[in-house]
Write a structure and sequence with these properties.
- With about 160 residues, the protein is mainly α.
- It is built from 8 helices and no strands.
- It has 2 domains: about 1-60, no CATH class; about 65-163, no CATH class.
- Helix content is about 55%, strand content about 0%.
- α4 packs across α6.
- The radius of gyration is 18 Å and the shape is globular.
- The two termini are about 25 Å apart.
């Protein structure tokens, strides 16, 4: 599961795999060797092995795509913490690996929480289960001492948790 993984993350990984000669046979399987992959594989758009949540919520229409930061904030989630994606390369060039890590970790948490909301939207998760899952994540994050998690928790105001 990702946010724009099909438009960014997976192509980057694919090109890096080409460069380094990585064997990713299972990723590229389309049903020739394993029939279970014929209609549910990683490379087809309409499948569940990899869910690009941005693509699904946009109804597979690029004009409907929205940035993770905006969708997260609309849902009462923290959104971007510490930097923006356009700043990652410069942070890398100047040795800001910890800033990048914090940024990516917060993005992952935002994406996961949007995924939980998506499961509520689909009817596969009840509000009670959603709240329990959010409680598990909150408890785990509260144990971490990093500043980005403190900021994340202070900005997490999801209305579904308080109805």
């Amino acid at each position: 599961m990702s946010w724009n993984g099909g438009g960014f993350d997976l192509p980057v990984l694919n090109y890096r795999a080409l460069l380094h000669g990585v064997n990713a046979a299972q990723f590229w399987e389309n049903g020739d060797e394993n029939r279970d992959f014929r209609y549910n594989n990683y490379t087809g758009r309409y499948h569940t092995r990899h869910l690009d949540l941005m693509d699904v919520l946009a109804m597979y229409q690029p004009r409907n795509n929205s940035p993770l930061d905006e969708v997260a904030q609309i849902a009462g989630l923290p959104g971007k913490i510490g930097m923006h994606g356009s700043e990652v390369w410069e942070a890398f060039r100047t040795g800001g690996i910890e800033r990048i890590r914090s940024y990516c970790e917060a993005d992952t948490a935002n994406t996961y929480l949007l995924y939980l909301r998506y499961q509520v939207l689909r009817g596969t998760m009840s509000i009670g289960d959603f709240r329990r899952e959010c409680g598990v994540l909150r408890a785990a994050l509260e144990k971490l001492a990093q500043p980005h998690w403190t900021e994340f928790l202070s900005r997490w105001q999801d209305p579904l948790l308080h109805e």
